[in-house]
Amino acid sequence: MIRRFVPGIVLYILCFCGIIFTWSLIRGELSETSTEAAGLSLPVLSESSPEEAGFSSSGMQNIEAAVEASIEEGELPGAVVLAARHGKIAYFKAFGNRAVKPDPEPMTADTIFDIASMTKVVATTPAIMQLVERGVLRLGDPVKRYLPKFSGGGKDDVTVRQLLTHYSGLRPGFDSAKEFFGYETALEELWKERITGKPGRTFAYSDLNFIALGEIVRVASGKPLDEYARENIFIPLGMTDTAFLPPADWTARIAPTEMRQNLQQLSKGIKPAEYKMLRGTVHDLTVWRMGGVSGQAGVFSSARDLAIYAQTLLNRGIYDGERLLSEASVAAITTRQSPPQAEDVRGYGWDIDSEYSSPRGDLFLEGYGHTGFTGTSIWIHPPSDSFVIVLSNRVHPSGGKNVNHLRAVIANIVAASIMD
Fold this sequence. Notes:
CATH architecture: 3-Layer(aba) Sandwich
Distance between the termini: 62 Å
Number of domains: 1
Number of helices: 13
């Protein structure tokens, strides 16, 4: 009697499971084994026309006039601008010159830039969050749990979270007039620092925060930040133009920055023969003194590689099947983590709404981004599934001018060109 009902029961169970599976697909509630979680149905960047990405071609054409006007004003020698939406690169163009001294060189779309403080969000922040996901770190812990010498001077209760949000109370950076050389020497200087603001209360954008975070990555992972980032961020995502300490065969594609004397030779009483144009050598003086690798600056990258990174975040942590961060981590780094009463709003590493939000412009009312002193910036706008990258070497050949106006203008043009 029971045997007569078994086939029917089995068929019923199979049908029921099929319904549940289909419903899960519709609602996107499958586990990490689903097609979407594997990254197969999430965008992998491709080039398209502006219209295919939901932009107005006529609107996007205004970018050219804005950049050329900035070049004419002497604000920068050249730039690369990339804008994408729905995984489609709809605008990707080089302007002006990559170099003007010692010899002029035209800018190309594949130019590699010293991205300066964008290092904080392209290398250091994701490294920290990966270690959090693995249970190696906890953001609420005092920094001294991981760096025992980070104590005294009011630093004992400063947390890893406060470093990431720039609410640690540390000053913006070391005194550039005080000469030191070597990574370990820089850490000795960091241990001596005293808190100048109230931790958890006072916002001060500080390179010292990310020097400490870079060292936390080294201590917690057992690998220096450049090695960790290469193995766990850049290579998995296919960011082949991104690295600390770029190799010599990249030099021809790297945008030079400024002239600098060999300060290490000067400190030893050796007079350098001449000033040297920095090209493939980090521009940030502190990082240069540290050997080219630190949590606050030092990464070199291209517009296309940074587009891969931006799309990874819009894909909630996945790109081309590779999981960089969990969805929870992406949400954490890109939403408000600064104190509730604070006017300057930061995620973990990322800027959301502060005096540093120039790449957001006036029309992208949401999103997150970051800038680099050398003239680089990115703004990612999840509501429109878009991002804007502006890369320049504004400091070339001799210091440059402020490019915040241009960053905002380009963002406004892109935002206004969205057609749906």
